[in-house]
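Q: I'm building a small set of examples for a reading group on sequence design. Run inverse folding on the following structure and report the sequence directly after it, with nothing in between.
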């Protein structure tokens, strides 16, 4: 019917979050995407060794169109007129649009640094670090959309260091959410008669059996990396994303984490309903077709996926695991984000005093009591702010006045913080009694 259509824009008023907690990044490996469109439409071209990243900063979803990223019709009628290269370009562009849209649906006040890698190689740690450098150290979380888990260990090294300087050593801590190709990821031909695409794979297709057997990804200290294996297998979405359909719902996960307070689990039922049409796994298996026993094993391997709760029509993330061991203080994303925020805040408050003079008691040569009290207050300001908004349950800051600052020029501060718990399990005792007293 003829009508007047309105499309409401969002973001034109420039409203942003009051702090940098929601700032996120998404680094996507999209072989087949036409690079000339990226460079011509406003993506920055950034060299990383011999490779190139195309990076843009998005403050609202509508910016994508100005950057030349628009959704393509992938129906068979359209594909009959396309070449295989055009198909790959369209699928890659649709993947960008879908995941960016999902991010802003969940975090309308967030900022997203979008990085694109167009060659067929895996995303490497230097590219992960470059995304953080490009943002000026502002990223709190980075989604990595890559071919496989081959470089999972390197992503942790990129943050914590080891053989080279890590982002934490440079005061730029980061949580990394990795999703990868679970099924067919290449196309070789399009039928001019039917528009059907011949799909092949350059990876070993993932299976539920493999997912439930991959407990070896969990290692002590792998606290900055999480793996997402849940996705939306809605038929129309799979058609639209084409060879990029069998990756996790990384835009949704990034958006939930961006919207959350640092202490909140993205699996919180009351706050983070996902609205996934057909929840499933990157293996191509629908959630409802996987046995409860297999789902438990995948959960035990600390993978993140989409689940349902009986009596609730929506769906949710199963948990907020990192790949650290379950006994670690940093076993969950919120543990890492909370302490990273505390560290950033404490450093920002103490930095102006670096290399400043410290008065000592003339009789003892130790720190003056007034200096101790003042610096304890300075170091605790960020934690006090976090406590006020319930990101911490409490904290303490202690400076030993007996430190010999004259000889060492080193001040030691001991900070203890009490986190905010997450109600992961509830045990309810219920039964009949003859009377209630």
């Amino acid at each position: 019917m003829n009508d007047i259509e309105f499309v409401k824009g969002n973001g034109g008023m420039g409203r942003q979050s009051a702090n940098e907690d929601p700032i996120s990044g998404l680094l996507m490996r999209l072989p087949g995407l036409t690079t000339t469109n990226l460079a011509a439409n406003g993506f920055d071209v950034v060299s990383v060794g011999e490779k190139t990243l195309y990076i843009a900063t998005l403050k609202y979803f509508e910016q994508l169109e100005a950057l030349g990223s628009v959704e393509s019709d992938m129906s068979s009628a359209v594909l009959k007129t396309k070449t295989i290269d055009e198909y790959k370009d369209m699928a890659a562009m649709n993947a960008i649009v879908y995941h960016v849209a999902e991010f802003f649906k969940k975090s309308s006040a967030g900022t997203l640094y979008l990085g694109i890698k167009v060659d067929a190689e895996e995303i490497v740690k230097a590219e992960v670090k470059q995304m953080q450098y490009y943002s000026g150290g502002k990223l709190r979380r980075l989604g990595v959309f890559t071919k496989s888990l081959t470089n999972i260990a390197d992503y942790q090294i990129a943050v914590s260091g080891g053989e080279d300087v890590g982002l934490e050593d440079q005061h730029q801590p980061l949580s990394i959410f990795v999703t990868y190709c679970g099924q067919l990821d290449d196309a070789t031909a399009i039928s001019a008669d039917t528009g059907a695409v011949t799909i092949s794979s350059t990876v070993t297709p993932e299976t539920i059996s493999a997912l439930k057997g991959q407990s070896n990804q969990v290692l002590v200290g792998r606290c900055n990396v999480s793996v997402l294996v849940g996705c939306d297998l809605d038929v129309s979405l799979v058609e639209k994303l084409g060879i990029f359909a069998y990756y996790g719902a990384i835009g949704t996960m990034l958006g939930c984490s961006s919207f959350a307070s640092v202490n909140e689990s993205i699996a919180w039922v009351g706050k983070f309903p996902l609205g996934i049409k057909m929840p499933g796994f990157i293996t191509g298996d629908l959630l409802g077709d996987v046995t409860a026993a297999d789902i438990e094993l995948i959960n035990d391997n600390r993978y993140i996926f989409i689940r349902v709760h009986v009596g609730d029509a929506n769906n949710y993330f199963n948990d907020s695991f990192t790949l650290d061991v379950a006994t670690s203080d940093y076993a969950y994303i919120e543990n890492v984000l909370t302490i990273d925020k505390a560290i950033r805040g404490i450093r920002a408050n103490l930095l102006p005093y670096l290399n400043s003079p410290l008065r000592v008691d003339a009789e003892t040569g130790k720190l003056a009591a007034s200096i101790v009290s003042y610096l304890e207050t300075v170091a605790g300001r960020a934690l006090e702010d976090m406590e006020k908004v319930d990101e911490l349950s409490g904290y303490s800051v202690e400076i030993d006045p007996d430190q010999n600052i004259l000889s060492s020029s080193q001040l030691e501060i001991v900070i203890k913080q009490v986190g905010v718990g997450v109600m992961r399990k509830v045990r309810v005792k219920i039964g009949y009694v003859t009377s209630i007293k």
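The mean pLDDT is 93.
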